[in-house]
Recover the amino acids of this structure.
């Protein structure tokens, strides 16, 4: 379905009522293939929602390390800060530390 929409006229950077894009949701859920398709379709990898979260923050918070790496390779900024000053790199470190316990 995603491929069909992207080949059609669906705007890749459309936002919902909290400013999140399809890339935010795909990254949060760890849908690597969808994230790749969105990036290839020129999705804005550093777009922020109303809380300043990027898709990279979403991937980090959800512990989706493969998606995190894919986004970094696509030039997502790991040092971008949310409204509370948290970076995606910090979120990923917190998730990694929790999984080691």
């Amino acid at each position: 379905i995603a491929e069909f929409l992207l080949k059609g006229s669906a705007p890749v950077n459309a936002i919902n009522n909290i400013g999140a894009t399809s890339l935010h949701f795909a990254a949060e859920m760890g849908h690597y293939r969808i994230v790749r398709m969105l990036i290839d379709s020129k999705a804005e990898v550093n777009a922020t929602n109303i809380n300043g979260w990027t898709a990279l923050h979403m991937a980090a918070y959800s512990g989706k390390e493969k998606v995190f790496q894919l986004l970094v390779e696509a030039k997502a900024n790991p040092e971008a800060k949310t409204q509370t000053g948290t970076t995606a790199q910090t979120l990923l470190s917190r998730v990694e530390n929790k999984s080691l316990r």
